[in-house]
Amino acid sequence: MKDKIFKSILFIASCLILVLTAGVIYALVTQSISAFSSFGLFNFISSSEWDSVNNNFGALPFITGTLITALLALFFCIPFSLSIALFNGEYFKQTKIATIVSSIVDLLAGIPSIVFGLWGFYVLRPILIDMGVSAQGFGVLLASIVLAIMIIPYASSLSTEFISMVPNELKEAAYSLGATKMEVIKTVSLPVSLSGIFAAYILALGRALGETMAVTMLIGNTNNIPTHLSDTGNTMASIIANQFGEADGLKLSSLMAIGLLLFLITATINFIAKYILKLVNK
Amino acid sequence: MENSINNDKYILELKDVSVSYNPEKKAIKDVNATIKEHTVTAIMGPSGCGKSTLLRAINRMHDLYPDIKTTGQILLKGENIFDMNPMRVRRLAGMVFQRPNPFPTMSIYDNVLAGYKLNNIGLSKAEKDEVVENSLKSVALWDEVKDSMTQKGSFLSGGQQQRLCIARAIALKPEILLMDEPTSALDPISTNRIEDLILELKQQYTIVIVTHNMSQAARISDNSMFMYLGELIEYGTTKQMFTKPKDKRTEDYLTGVFG
Amino acid sequence: MKKTIFSTSRYRQLKSKLFFYVVCTFCGITMIPLFLILWELVKKGYKQFNLSLFTEVSPSSMDAMLAKISNEPIPGGILNGLTGTLLILLLAMIIAIPVGILTGIYLAENQKKTFTKLIRSLSDLLQGIPSIVIGIIVYVWVVKPMHSYSALAGSIALAIMMLPMIIRSTEESIKMLPTSLKEAGLALGGSYTSVVLQILVPSAFGGLFTGSLLAVSRVMGETAPLLVTVLGASTVNWHITEPTSAISLLIWEFYNDPNLAPLVWSSSLLLLLVVLGINIFAKSIAKKWKIQ
């Protein structure tokens, strides 16, 4: 009897997750209906209008802003996170220095987004201005550089795991054929762990897409489609953070709709990564 | 209650016991056997023959895994264990596992009393002390640990840990003691001590022990079962089985043809 | 064109060495930002990092301006943010930790069920939701019906972010326990409930504790979801149904108000030290527990 009650408590707790997820989707969908019905789903996604005066809203600039900054960040982070993965998972596998490096990288992941934003604003922005990237320094480039630093820990920790899982026998086989360390990495370690590393980067991309505060502080907050690295813009997350407080009616619904789209994009990205991981683990 | 049963000298009776992990294949088939009080019964056989499966049927461990089905009857002091509350069955049939597994968060003292705690049986401090002392004395561990009662059980050596686990099992004063290869993870000296202990515990308990080790069975058991491919091939006194096995397969196993 | 084996192998060795140095260089560069950020905060924040930071509420823009004109240090601190963060985090822990641990136990104990796989995927899904999106959902759920921003709303948002992490760490640490531990408990006649609560949970306690602590440190600096749920307040508030401040929200305010900008560094320094401190503490505990 007591066991039955306890087991039902466990079950009910799990059901809460189900209810929570359903509630998330329900809230997003019901709140964005009025935006989608006034503008049409396709039109909302493809329109670059964001006009609070005439109540005409489209999400295209923010979708492109999000994709551009996130992909750029991913691109910037690859050499660094791959190096960390090789350093910790191959060259210095299971040594003290590897633990130190991985702890430092872990701590990087612990820094709050708003602190990254501050640092980007006060330290990196002046550097970009000095380099003549743009007059104000704000923009896609600044946001993606900081984003890249923020996602390095996510990309590198999982990659490290996969690289260190490559069986020694395989590597030894290559060494015994006279390969150098680099050739072993190129022909054995990386190819064997490739799909795992790929999944790690997709997960990191998912983080970058949803990152809010730092990007909001650095991207410049203009509602245009960025076409150049030095252009300012807005991401889906940053437009919500910026304008949610003062929004109501159709604008609120449009922001909700952007939230729904962002949710769908990150969920898809995460699903793909998890699917690849599942295949790898088999 | 006990007196009303004719064959009460048998503490354990197995009647057509079968266990299956999946519907197609039975892990053990129609085992019939009776076990007398204050004896040591060894279950032998090659790996995968169902020794442990049979042992774990006796305290209804298979209940934990919904896929495993047990059929037949097992009478403990004349009472069918499948009609009893599984928790009561397990209190009456203590179990010692292959690897010593003292509870890592509990002190030595609390480990011995774990059975009482888990069953929410309240004891006074004096009663607790008595149970702990008696149980640890029975496993000859008292002198070694009496000054470190509050330490965690995981600080003991493997052999000491296993004796602690035996103390934990007998603290509840079970009717029988089930041992699943209790020495397979221990060194020879610790193994010796456990074997001596089993011979002593026989005075008070009935012991069923699964073992891989034929000489161990010969040293400590009164009766032996030989199992092969899920069937109980032969059951008799250990002496008779080792000297004049009735079945060809038993003889082959004992002479090292397989296993 | 033919190279001797000797020279090619030397060339290849050299290339391999070079590659190693490149890896080390990139790796080294990645170590830099953490220290640069710390340095920046210490350099600019130590002057304001004083007792009044902990004992006074945040100043108004006007007070700060007046102080600035008369060349005095900006008065006030972040007491309202400290208490707000504490209140919101405590509430979030009360919501998330029990549910997370119970769910984690369920998942670890029913691994083969389809329902388990569903809940696990949903938990992953929740973990992937951007924090600002969680914020606006809680706005719809709580702020709108209650017609007020509130500490409660913020803590629900943070609890949703903590849940998946707690669930995952609970499930993993219970799964790591040897099955014989559970069997030994049951073999002593313990009920399922007592075996789980008295043996499994204490044995996995290190994992549960670290997981919960890391979850707290992860959401502690969150700003975006709080912007749209608790709004902020200029005084200390302990009522869970009223708008409340938080350290991260104050940082955001200071950042947006040029008069208050000097305070941004000391408050960020404090936030960072606490978050990293909890992080390091949790991980060192995890290590200690694992050795046992």
TrEMBL record, chain A:
Classification via PANTHER family: PHOSPHATE TRANSPORT SYSTEM PERMEASE PROTEIN PST, PHOSPHATE TRANSPORT SYSTEM PERMEASE PROTEIN PSTC
UniProt similarity note: Belongs to the binding-protein-dependent transport system permease family. CysTW subfamily.
GO cellular component, one term: plasma membrane
Protein species of origin: Dysgonomonas alginatilytica
Annotated coiled-coil segments of the chain: none
The protein, known as: Phosphate transport system permease protein
Location, primary (coarse class): membrane
Domain ABC transmembrane type-1 per the UniProt entry, residue ranges: 63-273
Record-annotated membrane-spanning stretches: 59-87, 99-122, 134-155, 188-209, 255-277
GO molecular function (one): phosphate transmembrane transporter activity
From TrEMBL, chain B:
SUPFAM superfamilies named in the record: P-loop containing nucleoside triphosphate hydrolases
The entry's keywords: ATP-binding, Nucleotide-binding, Phosphate transport, Transport
Top-level lineage group: Bacteria
Domain ABC transporter: 12-254
Biological classification of the source: Bacteria, Pseudomonadati, Bacteroidota, Bacteroidia, Bacteroidales
NCBIfam families per UniProt: 3a0107s01c2 (TIGR00972)
Name recorded for this polypeptide: Phosphate transport system ATP-binding protein
Keyword Protein biosynthesis belongs to the record: no
GO cellular component: membrane
Automatic annotation (TrEMBL), chain C:
Gene3D superfamilies listed in its UniProt record: MetI-like
GO terms for MF: phosphate transmembrane transporter activity
UniProt entry tagged with the keyword Cell membrane: yes
Membrane-spanning ranges: 18-39, 86-109, 121-142, 148-167, 188-216, 263-282
UniProt-listed GO biological process terms: phosphate ion transmembrane transport
Main location: membrane
Family statement: Belongs to the binding-protein-dependent transport system permease family. CysTW subfamily.
Protein known as: Phosphate transport system permease protein PstA
Source organism: Dysgonomonas alginatilytica
